[in-house]
Amino acid sequence: MSISTEIADFITKATIDDFSTESIETAKIAILDCMACLIAGSTEPIAQLLCDQAKHNGGNPHSSVFTKNFKTSSQEAALINGAMAHALDYDDVTEGIKCHPSVFLVPVALALGEYINASGKDILLSYLVGFETACSIGSGLSESYFDDLGWHPTGPLGALGSASTASSILKLNQEQASVALALAASQASGLRQNFGTMTKPFHPGLACKNGVLGAQLASAGFTADQNIFEGRFGFLRAFSGGTDYSPANILESLKKTNHMMESGVEIKKYPCCGSSHLSLDAIFKIIESHNIDPNAIEKITSWVDFDPPRSLVHYNPTSALEGKFSMQYLLAAALLDNQIGLNSFSDEKINRAEIQNLMGKVIMTRHPGNEGKQSWMEGFHKVDIKLTNGDIISNTAERHYSGALRGATVEQVISKFEDCASIAFDTSLSHKMKDMILDLENLEDINQFIKLF
Predict the structure, then answer these.
(1) What tens digit of pLDDT does each residue of 144-178 get?
(2) b/e code 232-263 from CB counts within 10 Å (16+ = b)
(3) Could you count the other beta carbons within 10 Å of the beta carbon of residue 40?
(4) Is the model's pTM score more than 0.70?
(5) What are the pLDDT digits (tens) for 66-95?
């Protein structure tokens, strides 16, 4: 069998009983976190632009656009909800494939699940199937895909994870699921050059739409090449830069690795690019233990576990979106404001004179001797603050590689959801939403949850 056929076999035969209790519980927490980010992101300008476009184009009202009080086609709803969930860059990441998994899985599961009256258990299964598939396919790509070639990993891999989730929800057969994957592969896209603009969150939104479209066309009898991954002109070679890819890794990974446990879901504490988070953790340790006068700082060095800039492409940001992808702004703001939160990102805050002055003192570099090697191999960041009197204050923060849920406790994710949900809903309603998600496997019809919006 071809790789796509074997993946399709996994998608169509998987049951919720194939997954451990920890994996299922983590999937629920990831869905809760994704909905938190979606609700908070629904107030961003990208949300209104996409909603206006969907209303202008029209479409059968099959699926809800959350917080916006209208329905549109399942494809458009998945697009808008996916983009809103990623608009703040507050959503989860997974270590193995360096991408944001829930934003290309949850919007698809909910859009199609609403249309076909799927159960909560169906939603959970489709999430886990999409997660495992995306991670397995990612294991076959070259390191250059993740670092040097310009791809936003969440875009192309997201299209494939989305198609897997859509295939699971729609209960496609093996041949149809294989076609859905091949269609998603041909639609896969997302370039890192667009980081710091609305197009970055558009990437997972588009991945969601493409996965839904691929599954719907496959269900209707569309055809596609079964050798889409291993073929000479297929996904792996094209997205790997023509070298260092491994088709065999995909199936070995799919059959032998529990990616939810091995790669995990890492919850974000800060609404900005995840590549900055360890340095932020390190600088907040310094802030907690030292009373530093920003005017007494000569230089700030952020030692990172990747070859800069990777995702942190804006050294001199001038807008709120650029600031989310700037180590210079984030460390300067942490020092001046003693926090990085939802209110840290506005054009006015980024263009403050004191911020601009301090940003010029921030240097980002990789730990010496590891230049050009695999990202995250060191697993820690170090921040050095050199003062004008010659003193150097340092601290480090490490990445944790164990367990399915990483970066936050269940209680912290619930608190994050309640904080984000308060933007649009009262406490009573947000508690109902939270309780339904945490008991998702017992929900007979996902519309019981969706109607709360």
Answers:
(1) 999 889 999 999 999 999 999 999 999 999 999 99
(2) eebbbbbbbbeeebebebbbebbeebebbebb
(3) 26
(4) yes
(5) 999 999 999 999 999 999 999 999 999 998
> For the chain, what percent of residues have pLDDT higher than 70?
100
Looking at domain 3-269+407-450, its CATH architecture is Orthogonal Bundle (1.10)
Question: Are the CB atoms for 161 and 133 separated by under 8 Å?
Answer: yes
Span 119-129, average pLDDT: 98
Asked if residue 253 has pLDDT above 70, the reply is yes
What mean pLDDT do residues 369-378 have?
A: 78
Helix orientation angle between 74-86 and 199-220, rounded to the nearest 10 degrees: 150
Query: Residue 102 has which token pair?
Result: 């829930």
Could you give the CA distance from residue 453 to residue 450 in angstroms, rounded to a whole number? 6
In angstroms and rounded to an integer, the radius of gyration of the C-alpha atoms of the chain is 21
Q: Between these two residues, 373 and 421, which has the higher pLDDT value?
A: 421
Tell me which CATH code domain 274-398 carries. 3.30.1330.120
Q: Which two tokens stand for residue 79?
A: 């697009």
In the chain, domain spans: 3-269+407-450, 274-398
Place of tokens 């840290």: 344
